[in-house]
Amino acid sequence: MFSPYRGFLTLEKWLNGIGAAILVAMMLLVTANVAGRYLLNRPVLGTLEYTEFFMVAAVYLALAYTQFLKAHINIELVLSMLSQKRKLLCDFITYICGFLFFGLIVWHGTRMTVHAYEIQEVTFGTTEVLVWPSKFFVPFGSLLVSVRFLIDALQAARELFRRKN
């Protein structure tokens, strides 16, 4: 049976995989640029611009799945001194703060992306590259990690109430 929670986890895994594929593409592009520059005296134009944009996509596509794995940095030294109930309370507060913080990024990032699309903003370097596709990944990835923080907050709250009773 399909559940929204499992469906969201599947989406997170797929987007994390896409982020990893983007990293591989970046690696190949930079390798081709270096080989072209030093072996053929013909670098790949736009390498810097494209790798900068690819980096944004790779990072923001992986944020939600990284949160699912609880692989972000946390302070074990402080948390190890707390009771299980207090750890859960700290987790709940952290998840709500993360939800609100990334919610603000969604709101502001969407405004910036729409503006970049409307004016057809481009970079100026060795080649002109549209900026809005890269900016799109900021609110998109932030929306996903916001949902993940909300799911985690609800799970922490459920566990807190279970321990209370």
Query: How can the largest sheet be summarized?
Result: none
Shape: elongated
- Taking pLDDT < 50 over at least 5 consecutive residues as the criterion, the unreliable ranges are none
Order of helices and strands: HHHHH
Question: Which oligomerization state do the chains in this entry correspond to?
Answer: single chain
What is the helix tally?
A: 5
Strand residue percentage? under 5%
Structural class: mainly alpha
First-last Cα distance: 30 Å
The domain count comes to 1
Helix content: over 70%
Could you give the count of β-strands? 0
How much is the radius of gyration in Å? 20 Å
Please state the average pLDDT score.
Answer: 91
Description of the structure:
The chain has 165 residues and is an all-alpha fold. It is built from 5 helices and no strands. It has one domain. The two termini are 30 Å apart. The mean pLDDT is 91.
Short description:
With 165 residues, the protein is mainly alpha-helical. It has helices at 4-39, 47-68, 76-79, 84-118, 132-164.
List keywords for this structure.
165 residues; mainly alpha; elongated
Sequence-ordered SSE layout with sheet pairings:
Elements: H1 4-39, H2 47-68, H3 76-79, H4 84-118, H5 132-164
Helix pairs in contact: 1-2, 2-5, 4-5
